[in-house]
Amino acid sequence: MDQKILSLAAEKTADGLQEFLQILKEDDLTDLLQNQAVRGKTAGALLKAIFKGLPCSEEAGALKRLKIYSCCIQLLESGDLQKEVASEITGLLMLEVHRFPGQLLVELANEFVSAINEGKLTNGKSLELLPIILTALGTKKENLTYGKGELSGEECKKQLINTLCSGRWDHQYVIQLTSMFKAVPLTIEEVEFVVEKVLKVFSKLNLQEIPPLVYQLLVLSSKGSRKRVLVGIIAFFNKLDQQHNEEQSGDEYLDLITVPLDELRHVEGTIILHIVFAIKLDFELGRELLRHLKATQQGDFSSICPFSIALLLSVTRIQRFEEQVFDFLKSSVIKNFKDLQLLQGSKYIQSLFPNECCISTMILEVVNNSVHSWDHVTQGLVEFGFILMDSYGPKKILDGKTAETSSGLSRMPNQHACKLGANILLETFKIHEMIRQEILEQVLNRVVTRASSPINHFLDLLSDIIKYSPLVLQSCSSKVIETFDYLSFLPVQTVQGLLKAVQPLLKVSMSIRDSLILVLRKAMFASQLDARKSAVAGFLLLLKNFKVLGSLSSSQCSQSIGVSQVHVDIHSRYNSVANETFCLEIMDSLKRCLGQQADVRLMLYEGFYDVLRRNSQLANSVMQTLLSQLKQFYEPEPDVLPPLKLEACILTQGDQVFLQEPLDYLLCCIQHCLAWYKSRVVPLQQEEEEEEEGFYQYLDDMLESITNRMIKSELEDFELDKSADFSQSTGIGIKNNICASLVMGICEVLIEYNFFISNFSKTKFETILSLFMCYKKLSDILNEKSGKGKTKMANRPTDSFLSMKFVSDLLTALFRDSTQSHEESLSVLRSSNEFMRYAVNVALMKVQQLKETGHVSGPDGQNPEKIFQNLCDITRVLLWRYTSIPTSVEESGKREKGKNISLLCLEGIQKILSAVQQFYQPKCYQFLKALDATDKEEEEEEVSVSERAAFQIRQFQRSLLNLLSSQEEDFKSKEALLLATVLTSLSKLLKPISAEFVQMLSWTSKICTENSCEDASFCKGMLSLLFNLDVSCKSPVGLLRDLSQDIHGHLGDIDEDVEVEKTNNFALVNLKTAAPTVCLLVLSKAEKVLEEVDWLITKLKGQANHKIIPEASSQAALTNHPMEKTTIIQLGTLLTFFHELVQTALPSGSCVDTLLKDLGKMYTTLTALVKYYLQVYQPSTGIPKNMEKLVKLSGSHLTPLCYSFISYVQNKHSRSLKCTGEKEKTAAGPTAIVSC
Question: How confident is the model over 421-428, as a mean pLDDT?
């Protein structure tokens, strides 16, 4: 029969074939075709002949053709056909689809849809036909019967696609089905059907099946729905990551982890590559990605997650998007840090956003994830890390200092962003070996090329990188050596930081060490002063870190500098014996510096002490060097006065006078080295005492002789009496100033030396007092000569030669030592209030230096642990002195010139509390524990930070109450302000809502409510404290409203005929304090609340754009959104606050200007909120009632009064100002409000 059909088909006309096929039954025809196809014999030719003989123009032929089509589809699905046969049949079927009538196409398509939704497909080979069928159907213009109605071909196609996407898809055909839609012309709506269906199927597939499906989906997105595709992919992987993190977070879930982490990360990496490839082919996809993520940036960062960040970093490899992506990531990071900062300072916003996302954590998660072969992300990470460090690193400010603050919670968003950049680079360096060379090169390039700008952040990063793996970095030694060539041209501070950072490399790489020594030797003889100072800094660092055999261990030395460095000792190469020769060579080089400028010598003297402690075997060489230098300026004859040749320390060149030898620093260095050597080394070398006794005994004798002769010397012996010229405009004056400074420094050094060797001898303490009197006479003369306008100690430098440890010991002896045997000798020092005042002043000076620079001068000045211990000891003493002898008791005795000692102690406590919170935030508990006078540690139970802080707070509360209860003429403004500042600092350590915090808030509120005080600074300090406490538990708008009523009551109304009733909510607010003090304070707080409300409105708008606010049918449901309610309440209360102030007769100047500016901000914020409601709420639901009330209230209670206030200000100015220009300038502020 098959031969018959084929022979008929070969004829010129198809009439015979058509007649023959009409006679054959459908079943016979399908059986014949099936047999031929399975055998693989002439199936294609037979099928072609059958189609030729069954034209679609005849209904019977079309129906038979449909039957044949169905049979072929079953054959294809059966899997019984050979591959070639199946391909041939498929091709023929594709060609014949367009000949079908529309109605049969609908039936054919329905068969496919039913088969797919019912899971009847066996191998899916027939699916290649479906896109052709749907395409053909879409071209039919006539109406076709579909279901119970009639639709056009295009509408039928749409319904079929909808039905297909509504049904169930077998997992194994999802990719094929998605790919199929590429060949079908689709409308935007149809694309959305398909995309939504595919995205829903994601969660039901195996992880390995998702990358090819995503690829097909991305290809399909070129037809539309790009945003939905990207959002769906990002949301799916974000959810997977969250699930995985939750599964890993608890041990009980460890057995239930559904996806291995390694597999998940590799799949994510593949997906990212697919998306990047798709963006390269379709830039609109990339633009859509950025548009979507920028939109979520305004809301709650819902689409910003580790996966989307990794995707963006990969997209940076496409040049067109590189700059845009990095700008977006930069702005997202800084915005997120600002959001977190705002949350940190506002309790009511914290309650609305308990789990605000942290982008920095996500980015660091991306760094960790990149270990799973995410090479396409790594380069973007490195670039982004450097972008953050470059953009947000410390900046140089006008006076040349660096605009940096400390670590901890007080850091500004810019500094957090810079630190994040450093962390990205450090973690990337640790994980990716291939990128290490590039990171190191870029860091070193920035250190060299940006030396004029602050680069501490790059030096810190370099130090962390080298600490991590000095041995690994040996391969990069050429770059480090190349950097050394620029040392002579870099600032000294940069050189010190750089050499400290590379120090571990010097221990493991001979080539790096040798290169550095060559560079330093050249620099020693350079013409630039900074180059020579850099050489000294480098050599000192080498001496500190290459230990000589027999030197004390680190624990014995209690070293400060370099404690944080990683020590790498390769003993086979650099053993201690070899180090000795190396160090002695360096010492010879350093001795040549003693003939150079004062700055170079000074650096050497400041560094020798640390060298000695780190390398005690160099003591002989160091001390002999110092001794020979001192001999040049020492008068050996015991009767010669003065004992030192000050003239030799000064160099005169023409009209210019310079300091040649910083003799005070030399003596200070000798004194500290000698004290350390005698206390640490000598006891361990008793058997060698005869050999070692020489130099230190000789130095002791010299210092003793200098002390005795300094006491005997009069100022005339130094030619520094009152008649001497101290002006800075003459050579003699400059010389005398230098000499005076040297003598004062020497006196301080000798005071510390004599106290150290005194063993509480009365004679020695008398010597100390005599040295102090010499110091004080010179200080008084310099102050007198500098002019009456300057305060006490005005032209003294902000530093002292006394070490911080000595200041601590001295204050303890003066104020706390109650040992009977010390009583008589200490009475000598205690008899001089001036000396005790001086001791406390030096302590204040040291703390101020710590706050400004992060370290103090003198021994252990760079060691945070030692500084912290000294701060604890000093604070304990100052606290005892202040609470034991209050200022009122001290002043009841004889009055002396200078500050009250107790007041100085309180000032010291205030400065130390500020410094501890700035630099030692994590150690606040240890600090408070150290202040506790009880020594019963073994009996002590665990006490919280809040309880310890509350104990100290109570002491200062008592002091303040005593001060407030004193007579008005006895009120001490300075002390009251200091107490308010101390209480503010301590209150920051209280845990909000704890019993101690509640007590503090209640007490502060009571003080402000019941105590009237006309001192403006104290009033501002206490009200600021009240605001700080109030903000920690709720919004301050209620407090602002109450204060505004008080201000209005005391200052009166802008309408002179209106008598305002005084509310007296807070007694601290009175006629003297109401303006400008309290008025400016409350306006600044109101401004901050407005900023917070603006932030909330921005969040609301962002969430509205993403439909995060649930759509509700009723108005009541809409108004229940907590963010909206909070926003309206804040603005409503602020409105009543401004309602009071615009009626107040404020004095001209800052109060009026600030109020007008804040009113403008208030109206801007109200406008933003109104626009939000107009955008979100539909006419059917209307605006919420509370919002309507707010708008009406602004119109009735604020706007009319604003115009009255503007008229009041203009009338007041027109009466008082004579200059028309000034009048116009002043009216500029009100004009802004009128425009609102």
Answer: 95
Q: Which helix (H) or strand (E) holds 651?
A: strand 650-653
Burial readout 579-602 (b: 16 or more C-beta within 10 A, e: otherwise): bbebbeebbeebeebbebbbbbbb
Task: Mark out the alpha helices in 854-944 (DSSP H runs).
Answer: 864-884, 887-892, 901-919, 924-931
Mean pLDDT on 654-662: 88
Q: Is the pLDDT of residue 838 over 90?
A: yes
**H helix count then E strand count, the chain:** 54, 4
Confidence band for 411, pLDDT divided at 50, 70 and 90: low
The answer to whether the beta carbons of residues 912 and 846 sit under 8 Å apart is: no
128 in Cβ contact with 184 (< 8 Å)? no
Rounded to whole angstroms, the Cα distance separating 950 from 998 reads: 11
> Residue 524 contacts by C-beta under 8 Å, 6 or more apart in sequence?
532, 535, 536, 589, 592, 593
**How confident is the prediction for the chain on average, in pLDDT?**
83
Measuring CA to CA, how many Å separate 168 from each of 127, 200, 201? 16, 11, 9
Please provide residue 149's backbone torsions phi and psi, each rounded to the nearest 5 degrees. -130, -170
Number of Cβ within 10 Å of residue 890's Cβ equals 18
Please name the amino acid found at residue 477: S
Say whether pLDDT at 1017 is over 80: yes
Q: Which of 681-685, 735-739, 1056-1060, 1204-1208 has the lowest mean pLDDT?
A: 681-685
What is the Rg, in whole angstroms, of the alpha carbon atoms belonging to the chain?
43
**Token pair of 305, please?**
């997650």
Contact 293, 259 (CB under 8 A): no
Report the distance separating Cα 867 and Cα 871, nearest Å.
6
Minimum mean pLDDT range among 915-924, 1009-1018, 1074-1083, 1212-1221 = 1212-1221
Residue 815 has pLDDT above 90, yes or no: yes
CA 1071 to chain centre: 43
**Are 147 and 106 contacting, i.e. CB atoms less than 8 angstroms apart?**
no
d(CA 348, CA 1095): 13
Q: Tell me if the bond preceding 642 is cis, omega within 30° of 0.
A: yes
Flag whether pLDDT at 562 surpasses 80: no
**DSSP readout, 134-196?**
HHHHHT--SEEEETTEEEEHHHHHHHHHHHHHHS---GGGHHHHHHHGGGS---HHHHHHHHH
Please identify which residue in the block is written with the tokens 């800052």: 1150
Q: Output the pLDDT for position 605.
A: 92
Q: Looking at mean pLDDT, say which of 77-81, 85-89, 603-607 comes out highest.
A: 603-607
Which residues, at least 6 apart from 240, have a Cβ–Cβ distance to it below 8 Å? 259, 264
At residue 25, φ and ψ (nearest 5 deg) are -75, 155
How far apart (Å, rounded) are the C-alpha atoms in residues 203 and 939? 59
Which is it for the CA torsion 15, 16, 22, 28, positive or negative? negative
In Å, how far are 8, 80, 451 from 28, measured between CA atoms? 17, 19, 93
Decide if pLDDT at 1234 tops 70. no
- How far, in Å, CA of 887 to CA of 244, rounded? 63
Task: Let me know: does 98 contact 136? Beta carbons within 8 Å.
Answer: yes
Distance between CA atoms of residues 175 and 178, nearest Å: 5
DSSP one-letter code for 57? T
Mean pLDDT of 398-404: 47
Return the structure tokens found at 430.
């640790």
- Quote the pLDDT of residue 32: 67
> Taking the C-alpha atoms of 179, 185, 190 and 195 in order, what is their torsion angle to the nearest 10 degrees?
20
* Omega of the bond leading into 1076 within 30 degrees of 0 (cis): yes
Q: pLDDT by residue (tens digit) across 1020-1053?
A: 999 999 999 999 888 999 999 999 999 999 999 9
Dihedral of CA atoms 559, 561, 565, 569 in degrees, nearest 10, equals -60
How many other CB atoms are found less than 10 A from the CB of residue 1083? 24
**Contact predicate 615/544, CB 8 Å:** yes
